[in-house]
Every structure is written in C-alpha cells, then in structure tokens.
Amino acid sequence: MRKFALTAIAAAFAVTAFTGGAAKAAGDAPVPEAQDWSWQGLFGTYDRAQLQRGFQVYKNICAGCHSLRFIAFRNLEGIGFNEDQIKAIAAEYDIEDGPNDDGDMFTRPGLASDYFPSPFPNEKAAAAANGGAIPPDLSLMNKARVGGPDYVFGLLTGYEEEAPEGFDLADGKYYNHYFPGHQISMAPPLYDEAVEYTDGTPMTLEQHARDVTAFLNWTAQPELEARKALGMKVILFLLVLTAMLYAVKRKIWRDVEH
Amino acid sequence: MSAPQWNNKVVKWVDDRLPVISMLHHSAYEYPTPKNLSYMWNFGSLAGFVLVTMILTGIFLVMNYTPHTDMAFESVERIMRDVNYGWLIRYIHMNGASMFFIVVFIHIFRGLYYGSYKAPREMLWWIGILILLAMMATAFMGYVLPWGQMSFWGATVITNLFSAFPIIGDPLVTWLWGGFSVDNPTLNRFFSLHYLMPFVILGLVVLHVWALHTVRSNNPTGVEIKTPADAIPFHPYYTIKDLYGIGVFLIFFSVFVFFAPDFLGHPDNYIPANPLVTPPHIVPEWYFLPFYAILRSIDFTIFGIPAKLLGVLAMFASIVILFVIPWLDTSKVRSSKFRPVYKWFFWLFVIDTFILGYCGAKAPDDYFLGIPGLKVIVMGQLSTLYYFAHFLVVMPLVGKMERTKPLPASISESVMKEGANA
C-alpha cells in the first residue's frame, strides 16, 4: 500500500517535472508575473461582476479588431446576464443573414442564437486594416498561450512608451515587455478610463486589463466551474470507494502469506 | 485443470455449446497467480482499463467530430462547449492518452527490472512491444485530429521523417499524405486509422493475455511457480487488488481531468492549424520526448549516410532493440532483486530516459538544466549513447560478470523469509 502510494506520487512528480520543462522551452520573452485570479485553486470560481466588466472592455475596445467566434450571445448567460439582457445585447449587433426568397443577403438585428460577428469580413481585410498583422481570435486566447491569463494580462499592461536604448523597433510596431521578440503590431489598446464602469470599480488601465483577461478566461473555459464542482464530487466518491476497496482487499488477503 | 461442472441449467446449456463460461472461469477465476506479486503488477490491468476508457470516450467523441480541415478544430470546440458533458469526454480522452503512456511505461520498466522478458516469456514481451508501437502510432494520429498548430506541424515533422529513406523516401511521404503536403486527405486517413488502431491494440492485448496465461505471471523473485502453495487463484485475490489499484489510479487521473486538464498538453494546439505560420518550437507530446531527443541527437553523417536518416533509424532502433533483449541479457537470474550490480544500471537507465525526455523538450541550443557550456544537444547525444550502451554493452557484460545473490528455493520460501525479517 505505502509502496504503491509512493509510486503514484513519484509518477505525478516526474510528470510535473517533465512537462514543466516542456512548457518553459517555448518562447524567449520574460515570464509574466503570476497574478491572483478568482478562479484559481480547488474552489475558485468566476466573479460574475468582473466578467461583465471584462465583457464591456471586450465589446468597446477589443471587438474593434478581434473576433470571438466561438461565443454566441446565448452563452452570455454564463457571465450572469438574463434572457432579456442577452436579447438586448444581441440586438445591438447587425448580423448578415440570407439569402432571402429573392436570393439577396440582408442584415437584421442579432438574436441570442447568433455568434459574435467578426470585425472583418475575411483575413485579408483584417491584415489590410492592421498593417499586415491579423488580429487573432480571442475565444481561446487564455488557453493558447504559455502562461495563459498571466501572459494576457502581462501583455496588456506590458507596453513601454519607448523601446529600450539600442532596440531596433520597426515602423508601426510597439514595444511590449512580454510579447515574444518584443515587437507587437497591436497599439496599446487600454488606458485609464478606457471604459466607463458603473459599479464603482476603479477605471485604471490595470483594472481594465484584469477584467478583460478574466472575461477571456471564461470564453476559453466556460466549463471551468462545472468541471471543478463535478471534480470535487468525483474525487470524494473515489476516495471513499477506494478506501472501501482497500478494506475488502485487506480482508480477502488476510489469510494469505504474501 | 478439469472443466468445472455447472449446476445452473442455462449456464450449462450455453457452456456445452460454446465453452465461454468455462474459458472465463479458467482464465479470470482459477488462473494460478504467484501470491507474492507487488503493486508493480497492477499496471497491466490498469493499461487494459485505460484502453477500454479510451475506446469508449473515443466512440462518443466521433459522434460529434468532423474530420475536415475546415471544421475539425471547430467541431472539437463544439464538443467542448455545446455537447452535453462534451468537455468531460474530451478531457478524459485527451488526458487518457497521457495516462495510458504513464501506465504502460511503468509496466515496461517493471518488466525490465524483474526480467519478465526472459525465457519462456519472449513472445509475451514481443507482443507487448507491438502494443507499444501501435499505441504510439495511435496517439500520434489522434493528436493530429483537433487540427491545431501542433497537430498540423507535428504531423508535418513526423511524416517528413520518412523522406529520409533513399529513393523511396519522397514518394513514400507523398503517399502517406495523400497529396503534396499535410492536408485534408491526411487528416481523413489519420482519422480512419486512429479509429482502427485501438481495435488492433485490443487484438494484441488478447494475444498478450493469452501468452501470459500460457507462461504464467513472473513475480518479484523471478522464481517460477513450483508447488500449488506458491500460487493463489486470480479471483478473488487479484481481482480485488486490481480494483483497488484502479481506484487509486482513477483519483490520480481525475486530478488531471477536472483540475488541470490542459497541463499535459501544449498551448499551441488551441491555435487553429495554419500552414503558413510555423510555431517557434515544434514539440511532441511528453511521451514522445525521449524518442524525439534520440532522433534529434544524430546531427552528423557516418559513411555518407545523412544525419536525418541515421536519426530516424536510431529512433526506430531504440524500440526495436527491445525485441532482442531476451538474448542480450546474459544473466541466468531474472529479478534485479538478486542482481546487486545490474540493479544500479537499471536505475541509471531509468534516469537516462528522463534526461532524454528533458532534452527532447528543450531547444538543441539551450543549456542543459541551465548549466553553462553544456548544450542540450550534447547531453542528448550522451544519453542516446548510454541508452544503446545499456542494451548492447551493460546487459551482456553485467549478466556474465555479476555475482548474483542466492535465489530463494521457491516463492513460498521467499515469502516466509520476508515475513520473518519484517
């Protein structure tokens, strides 16, 4: 029993050591500072008010260039909006639909079942409007970068007004502390009071960055809360079951010299 | 063993016509098993359990997955977001691959430590290696299916390896791809084969168990069962012990699935495949890293054979060499418990594979563990050399020269002795 448990722990440790190495292998940019996020830890959950503020930041700032193609308006229920609010949010958007019976495409107000429309009709248009760089889709951003939310937050707050001396910054690029290679095409997107909060939360660049990162964590892992809650139950169940199996095992083996 | 008499009429009726019940009784109930098996012997049944888990979750994933370059990534996200408990099924399947390799690697190291490959278990060992190879092919093709950046570039790098073979290389790669690059035909055939291979593995597992039940389980002493007192029936002793093992394993598995589901994966695979953008570091999944390190460590030509071909051959050889270790190991003693010298070499070998894994994860020009002057590529070359030296030099020589400890007369005797010492 003890040996087995030790083996299991050793295996877990080995795997951790292993993949830690793998994760660190990618990218030469400085490692972003670890932040405190509400969803961390065994019991961490999303802060609905923060997600809604983050959504506000996305909607008013990021959405100008970045799509969110895996998120439908109906999904916003997950950040605490009710049905009427969702319908109202969706209706603010013009969605292209069709063809109608005349064979023409037409625009109509968005429905809860629609997905967030992309700011550009295609990648070429996106690149043309952004000096050749395509603004990536943000739905999975927090899962698609080493460092996850810490990286996204670091990037949003990591702009320097001036590149360090001797750094050759290309035209139309900006210096970012955490972006691999430091030259990023995205202009600093956030600033103090970029978005007006109504709940009294300070409207600083840092707070905006924190909130939109939280929102993007939800878009990347909308299942997070359900996953952890189920995980708790599953592991508690397994602990009891395994303890009972061990007791039965001891009883069955009692008379065997082994 | 005589066929049991069945009292239940239905059971008897069936069994007289097709003796499945007798067969099950014979191999899952009364199968005489050494009574001294340690928990290291749990990993075979665990591997079987993971295989079934993978097949079941895979079947449900296929119901919602679309094998097309335009839709594969999106269909996976649909599974994650819109399919009821889709995230659970996918995370089990995704982490299940890693669990499968953890369990199987421990199973193989156990076999190496206790000499489970030696006569009369060579066929059993061979089938095991075939299972490993089939698993590697399956895992590789499965990783391509979500069609993320690592899927695409991993597939490109690995399939390109075949171009190293002279003359047939390039046509072979075109044939594998079904075109002139990794594209929709590649994705489609990988999907087809990824669905097929697990059933090939299942067939191999049946042969593996058949061979096992013919030659019987090895045990920590490496001494065969000699008298009925050395063995106990598989049921209930090992059924309950295996169940308990599955319980512990499921807790370990669940921690990953529910609390760190992307820990073992690579973030780049959440970026949709893009043939025009190459990721800065193309890294395989962790379970391929040691083999990847061996492949990469050959950066020189020998007798005009190009480095790439040598690397590919070395990588394949690192597994194929396992087929001949029943003859490379010259020791008369199976278990390393009684081999005071070889035991140390075994652990050195284990450490060597970990070092290889580390080297596979790093860029060749990085410094090994940050030690100045020690490039990862050099360390990879040294550990590759040691990997093969273990089989080709250590195994034959230590087996001949080592003075082994006296073996117990029987399993029962060893059990009594340990009991007395405890």
In short:
By secondary structure, chain A is mainly α.
| Assembly annotation | heterodimer
Coarse structural class of chain A: mainly alpha
Report strand % of chain B. under 5%
The shape of chain B is: globular
First and last CA, distance of chain B: 35 Å
Main beta sheet strand tally, sense and closure of chain A:
2 strands, antiparallel
Which strand order does the major sheet of chain B show? 1-2
Side-by-side strand order of the widest sheet of chain A: 1-2
| Mean of all residue-level pLDDT scores of chain A | 90
Written as H for each helix and E for each strand, in order along the chain, the element string of chain B is HHEHHHHHHHEHHHHHHH
What separation lies between the terminal Cα atoms of chain A? Answer: 13 Å
Q: Round the Cα radius of gyration of chain A to an integer and report it.
A: 24 Å
Account of the 3D structure:
The complex is a heterodimer of chains A (258) and B (422). Chain A has 258 residues and is mostly helical. Helices cover 42% and strands 5% of the residues of chain A. The two termini of chain A are 13 Å apart. Chain B has 422 residues and is mostly helical. Chain B has a two-stranded antiparallel ribbon with strand order 1-2. In chain B, helix 4 crosses helix 5. The radius of gyration of chain B is 24 Å and the shape is globular. The model of chain B has no long low-confidence stretch (mean pLDDT 95). Classes of the chains: A mainly alpha (258), B mainly alpha (422). At the A-B interface, helix 1 and helix 7 of A face helix 4, helix 5, helix 10, helix 14 and helix 16 of B.
List the SSEs and their pairings.
The complex is a heterodimer of chains A (258) and B (422).
Chain A (H helix, E strand, L loop, with lengths): L1 H24 L22 H13 L22 H9 L2 E4 L8 E4 L13 H7 L18 H10 L16 E2 L7 E2 L20 H16 L3 H30 L5
Helix pairs in contact in A: 2-6, 5-6
Chain B lengths: L8 H9 L2 H10 L2 E3 L8 H20 L9 H10 L4 H28 L8 H23 L4 H12 L8 H9 L6 H32 L15 E3 H26 L29 H9 L9 H14 L4 H4 L13 H20 L14 H26 L9 H11 L1
Antiparallel strand pairs in B: 1-2
